[in-house]
Automatic annotation (TrEMBL):
It comes from the Bacteria. It comes from Celeribacter baekdonensis B30. InterPro entries: Cu-oxidase-like_N (IPR011707), Cu-oxidase_2nd (IPR001117), Cu-oxidase_C (IPR011706), Cu-oxidase_fam (IPR045087), Cu_oxidase_CS (IPR033138), Cu_oxidase_Cu_BS (IPR002355), Cupredoxin (IPR008972). PROSITE patterns: MULTICOPPER_OXIDASE1, MULTICOPPER_OXIDASE2. Residues 23-130, 138-248, 357-450 form the Plastocyanin-like domain. SUPFAM superfamilies: Cupredoxins (SSF49503). Pfam families: Cu-oxidase, Cu-oxidase_2, Cu-oxidase_3. CDD domains: CuRO_1_CumA_like (cd13861), CuRO_2_CumA_like (cd13885), CuRO_3_CumA_like (cd13906). One of its GO terms (molecular function) is oxidoreductase activity. This is Multicopper oxidase. The keyword Metal-binding applies. Keywords: Metal-binding, Oxidoreductase. The keyword Metal-binding applies.
């Protein structure tokens, strides 16, 4: 007989507050945070537990909380107007769901998220395996990107059309766990499970671990065959996560660097990794690093139904569409030329979603296998996220992926085509959108129904 799940209770209160993002002599930054913190508190439970989270809205606008990457009942997904009424100022909503997958997840509002997340509302949600692999330290880094003024205030230009139509709201200040990082002290021989969460509105990270040994053991919370990060670089689009087994081989006193290489003309040193004077052990431990599998259902590619999804729009979109031979698509017809009401600049199968987009553009038969073939006919990268499910990334530009990774958010490069596969086993209406939050706000979203 199965025991009743252990209930783990939390409360979250999004509200305006202050955070010291940049060190003295800069002043503290007015932010919006959960429980007065940026990022919000790390919610941590064990796989199989039931979470009960009471959210009280301390903002003076409506909000919700979405549990990014979790496979949970539709009514708990935190999407305003689609899965729940938004939480009015001063009101409370209780979320309750079981932690069926172990892994690294996060939470954030889904109401006007380009501003609410951009002002600091985001936090880690960690679900521990029953038997996690042995490590010396388990460390979470929530990466964020801020557009700050001279006096460390958040620039008040949310929704600028330049950001909407280009690469999103890129900032000028990167933080780890709400602070501009300085040094990360490690010991020779130490093994660290590093959980990376990209909570930025728009910034892509490509972290080069250099002479540290970085092996990827999970992406978007889901275990993957452990493998060295390609060229030592871990790429994370907005909303994506990676669990890294970090081995620290250098001598005491050494300083190494972790460098961000995502933007060619703007590489920067994220932080210094300083080796403490006392070594822990001469060589990295030989402990097992693979994670136990989560209970995901394997899609049957032979029986899968295929669906085409085309992304168009944005600056220079018409040019890319012409080059790809897609001159009939949405942005040419209805968008750039037709003049769009409501600021729609990005299109999913020809439609730029406006306001509360409740009608599904695609229905997936429940419990069947499906392949979504996605084409990015734009000049920009898009991290595409499906709620309520994890999917396997099976091909890129027609080439089978090596690891067939499970993801909930897949980064698609300009002109790239990506196939993902899943069993649609979670009924309901689910958001499907770009996680560059300015793109989402400018139309790049839709609803996929599983029924
Ligand atoms: Cu991170 Cu629609 O969500
Ligand atoms: Cu996008």
């Amino acid at each position: 007989m199965r025991a009743e799940p252990q209930i783990r209770s939390f409360s979250l209160r999004p509200a305006p507050g202050q955070a010291r993002l940049v060190p003295e002599p800069y002043p503290a930054t007015p932010v919006w945070g959960f429980n007065g913190q940026v990022p919000g508190p790390e919610l941590r439970v064990r796989q199989g537990d039931r979470l009960r989270i009471v959210v009280t809205n301390g903002l003076d606008e409506e909000t919700t909380v979405h549990w990014h990457g979790l496979r949970l009942p539709n009514a708990m997904d935190g999407v305003p107007h689609l899965t729940q009424k938004p939480i009015a100022p001063g009101e409370t909503f209780t979320y309750e769901f079981d932690a069926i997958d172990a892994g690294t997840f996060w939470y954030h509002p889904h109401q006007r998220s380009f501003e609410q997340v951009g002002r600091g509302l985001a936090g880690p949600l960690i679900i521990d395996e029953t038997n996690p692999p042995r490590v010396d330290r388990d460390v979470t880094w929530l990466l964020d990107d801020w557009r700050l003024t001279q006096d460390a205030a958040i620039a008040d230009d949310f929704g600028a059309s330049m950001d909407m139509s280009h690469a999103g709201r890129l900032g000028n200040t990167v933080t780890i766990n709400g602070r501009v990082p300085d040094v990360f002290v490690v010991r020779q021989g130490e093994r660290i499970r590093l959980r990376l969460i990209n909570a930025a509105n728009a910034r892509i990270f490509a972290l080069d671990f250099g002479d540290l040994s970085a092996r990827i053991i999970a992406l978007d919370g889901q275990p993957i065959t452990p493998h060295a990060a390609p060229d030592g670089v871990v790429v994370l689009g907005p909303a994506m996560r990676a669990d890294i087994m970090l081995d620290c081989p250098a001598d005491p006193g050494t300083t190494l660097q972790i460098v961000d290489r995502a933007y060619r003309d703007n590489e920067f040193n994220l932080l210094d990794v300083v080796f403490d004077d006392t070594p822990l052990r001469a060589a990295p431990p030989e402990w097992e690093i693979a994670l136990p599998a989560n209970p995901l259902v394997e899609p049957d590619l032979n029986a899968a139904r295929r669906h085409e999804i085309l992304f168009t729009g944005g600056m220079m979109g018409a040019m890319v569409e012409r080059q790809m031979g897609l001159s009939q698509s949405g942005s040419m017809m209805g968008g750039m030329m037709g003049g769009v009401v409501g600021g729609g600049m990005w299109f999913v199968n020809g439609v730029a979603a406006e306001g509360h987009m409740l009608d599904p553009f695609l229905t997936l038969e429940r419990d069947a296998s499906h392949v979504l073939h996605m084409t990015n006919a734009t000049a920009f990268d898009h991290p595409i996220h499906l709620h309520g499910h994890s999917f396997r990334v099976i091909s890129r530009d027609g080439v089978r992926t090596e690891f067939r990774e499970w993801q909930d958010t897949v980064l698609i490069a300009p002109r790239e085509q990506v196939e993902i596969a899943l069993v649609a086993d979670n009924p309901g209406d689910w958001m499907f959108h770009c996680h560059i939050l300015e793109h989402q706000a400018a139309g790049m979203m839709g609803v996929i129904r599983v029924a």
